[in-house]
Specification:
This protein has 5 helices and 8 strands; from the N terminus they run E-E-E-H-E-H-E-H-E-E-H-E-H. It has 180 residues and is α/β, with parallel strands linked by helices. The longest helix has 15 residues. It is globular.
Length: 180
């Protein structure tokens, strides 16, 4: 496994078992994220839940961004991180049946699907969401987190937390001894 260390990050190459029946992990994919603070918070979330974080370029920031590192605190070495040059690479790795996309442009609730080991939860850019091309190609794989009409959307890091914890709940995830 080749790794690249940069500012506390350990960027790993795609793993051979991803997208196969041997993949027992959960994956979070950020499609062209724009705000470093959100991605930093999500990195911290992924470290705390042992979920793979996949970033799809182009990124709206550099990985050495101070706000990104600050939001992720000193947890970055614990984040299982993979950076992809484009979304096509993610599609090749995981295949259609492992990808679930979160969007406000659907009515299907995220709580109405059964997440399986090896699932990749995909979230779009903070300002534009997922591309129209992705929305059309995966119309049957779109999920929504219910909310009122008083806001346009949830904060990306909050939406990721909701989705990750629901998937982990379904997968009977236990982080070990949770007693204080």
């Amino acid at each position: 496994m080749s790794e690249k260390k940069r500012e506390g990050f350990v960027i790993q190459q795609p793993q051979a078992h991803w997208g196969t029946s041997d993949d027992t992990e959960l994956h979070l994919v950020l499609f062209e994220p724009e705000i470093p603070g959100n991605t930093g918070n999500i990195g911290r979330l992924c470290a705390g839940t042992d979920v793979w974080l996949h970033l799809v370029r182009p990124l709206g920031f550099e990985l050495d961004n101070k706000r990104l590192r600050r939001a992720g605190l000193d947890y970055w070495p614990n984040v299982k991180l993979c950076v992809h040059d484009n979304f096509g690479q993610v599609e090749q790795i995981f295949g259609r049946e492992r990808l679930w996309f979160f969007s406000k442009k659907t009515t299907r609730s995220y709580a109405k699907v059964a997440f399986e080991p090896g699932t990749a939860l995909v979230f779009g850019r903070e300002t534009k969401g997922l591309s129209d091309e992705v929305l059309e190609r995966y119309a049957d794989r779109l999920l929504r987190i219910p909310m009122t009409d008083k806001v346009r959307s949830l904060n990306l890091s909050n939406a990721c937390a909701v989705a990750i914890y629901e998937a982990l709940r379904q997968l009977n995830w236990s982080p070990g001894d949770m007693n204080p």
